[in-house]
Amino acid sequence: MEHQHKEHALLAEDFNANEPRVNWHDETLWWIRQKRDKIAWSIPEWEELRETASRIKHNVLGNLHDYLLEFERKAQENGAIVHWAANADEHNKIVLQLLQEQGVKRMVKSKSMLTEECHLNPYLAEHGIEVVDTDLGERIVQLAKEPPSHIVLPCIHKKKEEIGELFHEHLGTPAGNADPKFLTAAARQHLRKEFIQSRVAITGVNFAVAETGEMVVCTNEGNADMGAHLADVHIACMGIEKIIPQRKHLGVFLRLLARSATGQPITTYSSHFRSPKAGQQLHIVLVDNGRSRQLGREDFRNSLKCIRCGACMNTCPVYRRSGGHSYHNAIAGPIGAILAPNLDMKEYADLPFASTLCGSCSNVCPVKIDIHQQLYKWRQVITQEGHAKKTKAAGMHAMNIVLSKPGLYKTAGGVGRWVMRTFPAVVNNGMNPWFKQREMPAPPKQSFADWYKKNRPE
Amino acid sequence: MKVGLFIPCYIDQFYPQVGIATLSLLEKLGCDVVYPQGQTCCGQPMANSGFEHLTHGCNELFVNHFENFDYIVAPSGSCVLHIKDHLHVDGKEQAATHIRQRIYELAEFLTDVLKVDNLKAKFPHKVGIHQACHGQRGLGLAQMSELVAAPFSKPQQLLNMVEGLELIELKRSDECCGFGGTFCVFEEAVSVKMGKDRIADHVNNGAEYITGNDVSCLMHLEGILRRQNSNVKVLHIAEILNSI
């Protein structure tokens, strides 16, 4: 990211300025978490399924090199053209060149978090090419000139009234109409024109099967299919970790993905793209962008198992009460907080701390990523690499000195409690973030150690 | 059975009554309990803030104080989990390993080691259990709502032995309260909002008391309750199990 952001804590504080909105955001996502629970409980072997998925991905990460080459070979045999991009910049250049070869100035794109990660839309805009996002939620945030706030539900932070206003302004729907059915129909009309006119379509990839060279794209709206089938050129952009070894493994992942994401048994469309139809070009862009580096970080390697279901966001009590934009990264929430520091440790040094380490994320993760343990480990790495604030470091050093010396701890505790009892204003003031919305604990006259000495003499 | 009593720093300083209730309960149940003087902290506040490399001093103190006990028991799931996951001392690894394997949170010590099946305790009130995350998801004190697995709860098993006590049902059985160590000050806005929401769930379901296995969460919830001038009180599970 080129610009400096406020940190998560401050962005979250801004979000919390409107408490009813926080309640609404929290309840909406909790409802999705409950839908996920309900459908998970309908499958007795749910935990076994998670374990299986985790192990398949473990195998993929251990043999990624071979699987990628196998996938490339098969895809080429199928008639696709495979491109390799080491980073976001290379990815963007490859896509731009393909678009320039076609001479297009406007094209459609279905949901792809990878292209968000690479900031493809602004890059193409700089080169005079307009991208029309065709996932309804993504189109909404695009019209609002905002990034998605959630990887599965990009406009989950927007109320229907706000969407009505946006559509009134951009699509000419009547002012004040916020009926979801009506607005969806309006978006459908608007997007249909784009689909018909677009000669190039970009899609993301959910799963790429090494054995067959095919890709599977999961959507609820069929927008990836509309784009890819109508266009002369289909460009599929994928991170290199999207590989699965065999087609049969889809039987595990497709069962987990939508159940974890939205509580649906399966996405409405699970489309397999294998060979370009006559006269069409199929390009596949395989993107690394830090993934090899993450693969080399033993403690964080498992984060590459992620299938982008968003379950960790829906369950995260912090995400639900701070909103996706507070993570200032394409991927928000717990998974974003363990992926982002790999991309830019300084820029995202705040994210692993935006968690209570409650562990709910790891429990819902369909591929069993130890998310909260990785958050803890990133905290250590970030501090060791010198990205902790000086004031915080000073506080921690002082705390350590007191806690490492029993005599000093006893004296400091006694004095501290005496000060709190005698001059409460020393701690009960605006400088103390605890006191802002909470009372301090009442300081007792004697500590437990004091009591024990008196009551259990040796 | 020689039990070393670990009373975490903030309990020692601010909630001595929880330490007293824990000690008294263990003694009532026939344990030979010693509180080693000079103990301070498990080191978690530094470690969770990214400063685990500073915790050598705390680790050494901990091993020195607790290496000679059959069991180490503490009224805090969070501190126990930290010791279990992170206690290491150069040159004393055997002692550290002994402690990591022999440290128990109070409730699990009662249910799993002492195998307590009845208690002479009375607490005629409506009580809500706050499942502290580190105890629940870290130590496995109770089943977690995210998993498709049979339910169980060690704290509930014990509270069910208390005469007159009525447990209330919550809308969200195991959501985090937002304390989170230094998270409670560095992410003050979200921390307090999470605490307020937890409290509302207990209050809306008729709780007179909120109890749990971690004083840290309860301290955070108590701070908010007192600011709200609420009549709802917090008590550590030891205080309820020890009440007559």
Describe the protein's architecture and organization.
The complex is a heterodimer of chains A (458) and B (244). Chain A has 458 residues and is an alpha/beta fold. Helices cover 52% and strands 10% of the residues of chain A. Chain A has helices spanning 8-15, 19-41, 46-62, 64-77, 88-102, 113-117, 120-126, 136-143, 160-171, 180-197, 223-230, 250-261, 291-296, 311-315, 317-320, 333-343, 360-364, 371-384, 390-404, 406-422, 433-437, 448-455; strands spanning 81-85, 106-109, 130-133, 200-203, 207-209, 214-219, 233-239, 243-244, 269-273, 281-287. In chain A, helix 9 packs across helix 10 (180-197). The mean pLDDT of chain A is 96. Chain B folds into two domains: 2-113; 126-241, Rossmann fold. At the A-B interface, helix 1, helix 2, helix 17, helix 18 and helix 19 of A face helix 1, helix 2, helix 3, helix 4 and helix 8 of B.
Q: Of all protein chain pairs, which has the greatest interface, and how many residues does each chain bring to it?
A: A-B, 76 and 73 residues
CATH architecture of the largest domain in chain A: 3-Layer(aba) Sandwich
Number of helices of chain A: 22
Fraction of residues in β-strands of chain A: 5-15%
Straight-line N-to-C gap of chain A: 63 Å
Widest β-sheet, arrangement of strands of chain A: 1-10-7-4-2-3
Q: Roughly how much helix do the residues of chain B carry, as a percent range?
A: 40-55%
Tally of distinct domains of chain B? 2
Number of domains of chain A: 3
| Broad structural category of chain A | alpha/beta
The rounded Rg of chain B comes to: 17 Å
Q: Mind telling me the CATH class of the largest domain in chain A? A: Alpha Beta
Overall pLDDT of chain A, averaged?
96
Radius of gyration of chain A: 25 Å
